[in-house]
From TrEMBL:
<dbReference type="Pfam" id="PF13432">
    <property type="entry name" value="TPR_16"/>
</dbReference>
<dbReference type="InterPro" id="IPR044650">
    <property type="entry name" value="SRFR1-like"/>
</dbReference>
<keyword id="KW-0802">TPR repeat</keyword>
<feature type="repeat" description="TPR">
    <location>
        <begin position="79"/>
        <end position="112"/>
    </location>
</feature>
<dbReference type="GO" id="GO:0045892">
    <property type="term" value="P:negative regulation of DNA-templated transcription"/>
</dbReference>
<dbReference type="InterPro" id="IPR019734">
    <property type="entry name" value="TPR_rpt"/>
</dbReference>
<dbReference type="InterPro" id="IPR011990">
    <property type="entry name" value="TPR-like_helical_dom_sf"/>
</dbReference>
<protein>
    <submittedName>
        <fullName>Anaphase-promoting complex, cyclosome, subunit 3</fullName>
    </submittedName>
</protein>
Length: 573
């Protein structure tokens, strides 16, 4: 019975999604149905019948019904009248009464297959499968190439537990319209029930080849092999397919999805062949870019080209962009992540996740001018989300607007009803920002410890600690060596260290490289100006400080440098 219920639910889903419900769509179609059903017996009262049809077309159903009923009293043998009354009942959303009228119309004219079809459909929708089945048999025999009829006939058989007949009818459907994933799954469920397990592999292979990209189908098929303890056999079959000259894309996709994962060497072969054949979808490539880079399957230039192509051609595919976003974050390409977020916001200015991603990256990179604009726009869009108030508190703290920063922090806390780890992390970092500004080292260390103990966003924690250490001269919590060496922002911190150690040429090279990717980084321009001054390049120093001033207005340190044309030791970097 469980199988019957499951299969019935699947069939109901397909009925709704694949072909739609076969019911008259509007009054006009109903009236045309009535005209179609006219027989010679209607002619004695043809004028009244046409009048009722016109009323029906105009939506005056009650008046039309009165005429039809009066005509029934005069000519009770008139099948067309009963059919017209049935259509009116459907228009009034009363299929139970409709089927009674359709039954009477059919009983009066049992050779009329149109009556049989409408009666069968109405009974099917009412769940009267036993009564509907003989009518669908007649309809199918009369129109064997109509896939809708074949499908409804199969549905009746499934509901009545007649799986053999149902499978046969569904085979007829696929013979007419091709393989349909939902129908294939129904057949796969029914074949063991009628002792035809030997056909399962053929049916599953057809499904795999016909619907290779659908994650639901992939999961369904893999679960089948796990359930039947035949996953290893399936893997061997895929390995064999991989050696063929022309490999189907489903072979690549299933080898990449199968769990436990295949060996790295085989995975390299799958990705190489899939990418070179130009059949592997962008999502699979994006999900495996990090593996390709770490295993050096392709050159760095080739991997960059793959990532660029995906970004340029699949910006409107969120799952692909999410996978690409994860790759860029994993390899420290924050600039690429920024561009992805900005690209998404251009297409959808209300994309919450992109606003959050953009703001978090701007905070991590120290792009506080950009962060200020992003956070204010996000707060307009989402005025009760605490994460943006916490980020705003960081911006205000950076500009030393301590009272306003506290106010923003308190606003965020007032909206802190259910906190995720990410929100809690931002909360603690904002508290640390204010604590260090006020010289409260104990609270600073406590807030940073709480942020670290959350166990999320560890990379962001390390970067935040480095910002505090270099910008606010906060107690040292993180060494440069601990941080992911591929992170773009690390160049800035390395330049800070090189400058502090007196290695000004090295600092200059690192800063110029960093600024080529992040030209709006005020602190980097400020530091570059200091480095130029130490290298006795005053004109270049002034130009760099002016650049910093563009993105960091009303900064007393920078203004003083430009006024005096002199570098001096300052409290904060």
């Amino acid at each position: 019975m469980i199988k019957l219920n499951y299969i019935g639910i699947c069939l109901a889903f397909v009925l709704a999604s694949f072909w739609g419900v076969a019911q008259p769509e509007d009054l006009k179609k109903q009236a045309l149905d009535d005209a179609h059903s006219l027989s010679a017996k209607a002619y004695p009262n043809i004028e009244d019948f046409h009048k009722a049809l016109r009323l029906q077309l105009a939506g005056n159903n009650n008046e039309a019904k009165e005429i039809y009923l009066s005509l029934v009293e005069k000519t009770p043998e008139n099948d067309a009248l009963f059919f017209a009354l049935g259509n009116l009942a459907l228009a009034e959303n009363n299929p139970l009464i409709a089927q009674s009228y359709f039954q009477q119309a059919y009983d009066l004219d049992p050779k009329n297959m149109y009556y049989a079809e409408v009666l069968a459909m109405t009974l099917l929708e009412l769940g009267e499968f036993e009564r509907a089945l003989p009518y669908w048999e007649m309809v199918v025999n009369n129109e064997p190439r109509d896939y809708n009829f074949q499908y409804y006939y199969a549905q009746c058989n499934v509901q009545l537990g007649k799986y053999k007949e149902a499978v046969k009818a569904l085979n007829n459907v696929e013979g007419l319209v091709g393989v349909n994933p939902q129908i294939s799954k129904l057949k796969i469920e029914m074949l063991p029930l009628i002792g035809q397990e030997d056909l399962l592999e053929e049916e599953i292979t057809k499904l795999r080849l016909a619907d290779p990209y659908n994650p639901e189908t992939q999961t369904y098929i893999l679960r089948h092999y796990i359930k039947t303890s035949s996953l290893e056999t399936f893997k061997k079959r895929l390995f064999s397919e991989l050696k063929q000259e022309y490999t189907d894309v489903s072979t690549y996709l299933y080898l990449l999805k199968i769990q436990p994962p295949i060996e790295d060497e085989l995975k390299q072969e799958v990705l190489q062949k899939g990418i070179r054949s130009k059949t592997l979808p962008a999502l699979s490539i994006a999900e495996n870019l990090l593996f390709l880079q770490e295993q050096k399957v392709f050159s760095a230039d080739s991997i960059k080209e793959l990532a660029d192509n995906i970004q340029n051609n699949f910006s409107d595919h969120p799952p692909v962009m999410d996978a690409l976003d994860k790759y860029y974050k994993a390899v420290g390409k924050a600039n690429n992540v920024l561009h992805l977020a900005q690209q998404r916001l251009e297409e959808n200015p209300n994309d919450f996740q992109s606003w959050l991603s953009l703001s978090l990256l701007q905070s991590q990179l120290g792009l506080f001018g950009n962060l200020n604009a992003s956070v204010h726009q996000a707060m307009e869009n989402y005025p009760v989300l605490p994460q943006f108030y916490f980020l705003n508190a960081q911006v205000l703290a950076y500009y030393k607007e301590i009272d306003l920063a506290k106010e923003s922090l308190e606003m965020g806390e007032s909206y802190l009803l259910v906190a995720s780890d990410t929100i809690e992390f931002l909360h603690h970092i904002s508290q640390a920002h204010l604590a260090i500004l006020e010289g409260d080292i104990k609270s600073y260390k406590s807030s940073m410890a709480e942020a670290k103990d959350l166990g999320v966003m560890q990379q962001d924690y390390q970067i935040a600690a480095l910002h505090f250490q270099h910008f606010y001269r906060a107690p040292k919590l993180v060494d440069l060596q601990e941080v992911n060496s591929q992170l773009d922002i690390l160049l800035y911190f390395q330049a800070l260290k090189a400058s502090a150690d007196g290695n000004y040429t090295d600092a200059q090279n690192k800063l110029e490289t960093f600024l080529s990717s992040y030209p709006e980084h005020a602190n980097a321009w400020d530091l570059l100006g200091d480095v130029y001054f130490q290298l006795q390049q005053p004109a270049e120093a002034e130009a760099a400080w002016r650049k910093a001033q563009q993105f960091l207005t009303n900064n007393l340190n920078i203004n003083k440098k430009l006024e005096t044309k002199t570098f001096y030791e300052q409290k904060y970097y």
